[in-house]
Amino acid sequence: MSGNSIPNLLSLRGARGGRGGRGRGRGRGPGGPSSGPTHDQTIQGTDDDAAGSRLSAVNVGYLADPYAQFFVENLAGPSPRRLPIINRGTYTRTVALDNLIDSFLDDPYGMQSDSKQRQIISLGAGTDTRPFRLFPRANRPKLVYHEIDFAVTVRKKARIVQSVPPLRQILGVPSVEEDGSWNSQPSPADKYYCHSRDLRELVRDDAPPLAGLRTDIPTLLISECCLCYLETSTTKDVVAWFEQKIPNLAIIIYEPIRPDDPFGKMMTSNLAARRIRMPTLESYKLPQDQTQRLRDAGFEHANALTVERIWESWVSTEEKERVDRLEGLDEVEEWKLLADHYVVAWGWRGAGFAMDANGA
Predict the structure, then answer these.
(1) Is there a binding annotation on residue 81?
(2) pLDDT tens track for 103-113
(3) Where are the domains of the chain?
(4) Is 178 labeled as ligand-binding?
């Protein structure tokens, strides 16, 4: 496989039996090629492709997610199957986030049961299935879960939940607001909010408050290919907006890196061809830049690992063997190159966290 034909974990090109997919980023970055409704609509559309990639990894056996099927719509035939290196990339990034989120939900401090509460805020969440996987879980803290995205995506998710009994059974009947925002109560102890908000407007002084936001409990902020589409100054403003309100705060960021080597240049060129620009890719080029980014933002602890490092160090030998048996991976060097261009960074400050450098 030549360098120019290697797919990437952001555009997720190279589908088998269907169109190529894209990552889960939802763009909110004004300026240059990424300005205006065309860019916003392009990034909004990536959620459909992300859902297809997630379902591909599930159908092949990489991931166990019974809810992925409900968010791939209008299929004329079998769902698209991605290339093996894309399925492995989807698997590895999911493992990374799941490990870190599980660490956040752990209770290492022996808090009393009535004070076990956690809050998760997912930026640009799209049709992510994580809430449906977390709420039914036993032995977890009481959970307040927020998802923030554009109105069209938020309304779509509400429509799917309302029409699919297994989803509605988990979240409960949605209460929908005029702007498309909605909320539900999965259990008497839990709360779910899906906000129709543009992150560029969230940080404005005259912006309305974020409904249901708790500032008194440990909170995890997730950006899975979302903040990367904002101008760097705006990404700082978004993180600062939450930091100023929540003293005990953690963050997980998944983004591409290394734009200056041949593969990185190809990656940015492919994005530019679709009029998509990623300002943070130029601002935080290496894993250590992402670590410093979090420290500069005020997080007392910060770490960053490439997807390739996560595959090598976080996935057990037995699990690697299981994944290898699912479908052959002939392009091992291409996988390493691809996975080395994506990073998971995480950091935290305050009390209530157990997120060490091993993601456990």
Answers:
(1) no
(2) 999 865 544 44
(3) 3-349
(4) no
